């Protein structure tokens, strides 16, 4: 058990007999009354989002999880297939629960899978990932009336707003938390 005031973003807690990831946390210490914590929690089995407010002295059960390096093999429409890189055991994860992360994932790349109670409950993506642009409009010289960005599509199907100079076939670094363009990658 931990105090609600000690909860931090990225932790895993047990709420209503289900595992939840702490997506956002805001600590509030008003002038009057006791401090409290506003949380945004995502159920790791159903994808349901809760927004509880807890007093900072309330007790919460933190769950112990294990992170395993796994290779993402492919998606078949319903499930994403992974292989544990240590034991070579293959397993499935429901795609619907991780659609927000699936759009960043490339076949053959390694990701960290969070396991709780012998069941995968989360996929940890790197903060930034390199993607190849597969579709990009050609920029017209002097075309800055609509802004200096255009939307491109990368190999996973993700759409990203990038500067006008980015062309098809180039590599871009994308922030996996926000979906924003970071920089062009030369290699």
Provide an overview of this structure.
- With 187 residues, the protein is an all-beta fold.
- It folds into three domains: 2-62, SH3 type barrels; 66-124, Nucleic acid-binding proteins (OB fold (Dihydrolipoamide Acetyltransferase, E2P)), CATH 2.40.50.140; 128-185, Nucleic acid-binding proteins (OB fold (Dihydrolipoamide Acetyltransferase, E2P)), CATH 2.40.50.140.
- Helix content is 2%, strand content 52%.
- The chain is built from one helix and 17 strands.
- The protein has one helix at 99-102; strands spanning 2-3, 12-15, 18-28, 36-43, 49-50, 53-55, 59-62, 66-75, 79-84, 90-94, 110-116, 119-124, 128-135, 149-154, 159-163, 171-175, 181-185.
- The strands form three sheets. Strands 1, 2, 3, 4, 5, 6 and 7 form a seven-stranded antiparallel sheet that branches. It has a five-stranded antiparallel sheet with strand order 10-9-8-11-12, with no helix packed on it. A five-stranded antiparallel sheet has the order 15-14-13-16-17, with no helix packed on it.
- Strand 9 (79-84) and strand 10 (90-94) form a beta hairpin.
- The longest helix is centred in the middle third of the chain and has 4 residues, at 99-102.
- The protein is flat and about 60 Å long.
- It starts with a strand and ends with a strand.
- The model has no long low-confidence stretch (mean pLDDT 86).
């Amino acid at each position: 058990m931990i105090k609600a005031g000690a909860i931090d973003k990225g932790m895993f807690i047990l709420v209503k007999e289900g595992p939840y990831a702490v997506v956002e946390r805001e600590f509030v210490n008003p002038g009057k009354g006791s401090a409290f914590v506003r949380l945004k929690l995502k159920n790791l089995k159903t994808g349901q989002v809760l927004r509880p407010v807890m007093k900072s002295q309330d007790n919460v059960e933190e769950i112990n999880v294990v992170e395993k390096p796994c290779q993402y093999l492919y998606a078949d429409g319903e499930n994403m297939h992974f292989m544990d890189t240590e034991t070579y055991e293959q397993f499935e994860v429901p795609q619907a629960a991780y659609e927000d992360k699936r759009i960043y994932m490339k076949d053959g790349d390694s990701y960290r899978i969070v396991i709780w109670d012998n069941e995968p409950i989360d996929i940890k993506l790197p903060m930034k990932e390199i993607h190849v642009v597969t579709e990009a409009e050609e920029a017209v010289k002097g075309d800055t009336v609509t802004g200096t960005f255009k939307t491109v599509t990368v190999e996973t199907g993700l759409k990203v707003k990038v500067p006008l100079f980015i062309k098809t076939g180039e590599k871009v670094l994308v922030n996996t938390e926000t979906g924003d363009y970071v920089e062009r990658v030369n290699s």
